[in-house]
Amino acid sequence: MKKVKLILSMLVISIAMNIQAQSPATKSVNPEVAPIMTFEKTVYDWGTINEGEKTETDFTFTNTGKTDLLITRIKGSCGCTVPSNWTKEPIKPGEKSSFHVVFNSRNKPNQQQKTITIYCNTAKGSERVKIKGMVTPDPELAKQRAERIAKRKAMYAKRKAERERLDQEQAKLIQDKKVNEIKREGKSLDKKRAHSLTVVEKKTMNSDEKLKQAKDVKEKELKLAKKDHKLAAKQLKVNENKLKEEEKARKQATKLAELELKSEKQASKRAEKELKMAENEAKEKTKAAKKLEKTEKDSAKRADKALKNAEKDAKAKAKKEKEALKKAEKQAKELEKKAKKAEKEAKRLAGLKKDYNKSIDKLEKEEAKLAKMKNKLESLKLKGKLSPEDIDKRKADMLKQESKINDAKTKMQKVKRKM
After folding, report:
1. Which residues are CB-contacts of 87 (< 8 A; sequence separation ≥ 6)?
2. Residue ranges of the domains in the chain?
3. Which DSSP letter does residue 138 get?
C-alpha cells in the first residue's frame, strides 16, 4: 500500500511539473508565425529484443515554420527512456536537426511503448514521438521479481496472522475469565483468593505481551512510512534541481534567439506553402494533444482520489488499533483493581475467621466450666454437704455462667453473619 501511495504521489508531481514546464513556452507564441517541427518519423518500432539489452535511435526533424525553433528540454516518459544530443542553439526555418534516444529494457518485459516529449516554442508548446516493441523476459530477472512479490505477500500474510493471533488471545482471555468465575463458586475463601491472584497475574502478563507486540508492529509500519517519505523527498529534490538547470538554459537560448530574430529576415514563398500544409497537420496534432491532456487530467484525478482513499484507510486502521490498545489497558487496570479488592476481602475474612475461632474456643471453655459447676453441685447435693443458702449461691453462679455463654454465642453469630 505504501509503495502504491508513493507511485501515485510521484505521478501527480510529474504531471504538475510537465504542465508547469509547458506554460512558459506557450505563453507568448503567436500561432501564425510559430515554428513547426516536421519529423521524418514519429514512431520507432525496434521489433523484439531480450530483457536487459538496450536499443537506440535518432529522431530527425525540420523546422518548417516562419521563426527560429528553440528546444528547452526533452524528456522520456520514464527513467528507462533517455533522450540526449539535442541542440541548444536556435534552429532556423528550413534547417534540420535531430536528437538521440536510448531505451534500457532491464525490468521492462513484454510489450512496451514509451513517449518522448520535446518542450519547445511551437504553437502547442511541446511535441511528442514514440518508441515501441517487444521485450523477451529474462528468466533470472523474472525469478527475482517473483521472489520480491512473494516476500511482500509473505510479509503481509505474517502481519495478518499476527493480528488474528492477538484477536484469538483476546477472545481466549475473555473465555478463561468466564470459566474461572464458574470454578471459583463453592470453594473456600483461601482458594478463591489464590486462584484470583493467579488469574490476574496471567492476564496481566498476556496484556503486557499484547501491548508490546502492537507497539512493535506500529514501529515497523512507522519506519516503512519514514523510508518512503525520504525516497519521495529525494526524488522531488532531484526534479527541482533539473528544472532549475533547464530553466537557466532556456533563458540563455531565448536571449540568443531574440538577438538573431532582430537581424534576420524571414518568410519566403516556399515556407508559406509548407506552412499551409503544416497547419492542417498542426490542427490534428492539437486535437490529439488536447485529448492526451484530458486523459492525463483524468488520470491525475483518479490518482488523487486513490491517494485520499488510501490515507483515509490508513487513518481508520490507526484509530482502530489505538482504540484496541486503550481497551486492553483499561481491562488490565480493571483486573488489577479487582485483584486488590479480592486481597482486601481475603484479609478481612481472615480476621473474621480468627475472631470466630476465638469465640468458639471461649464458648467451649465457658460451657465446660458450666458443666463442671453442675456436676460439682449434683455431687455435693447427693452427699448432703450443702446448705440451702450454698445451693442458691451456686445456682446464681451458674446463671451468670449461662449468661456469659449466651453472650459468647451472640458475638459468634454476629461474626458469622459478617462472614
Report:
1. 71, 97
2. 144-218+329-340, 346-418
3. P
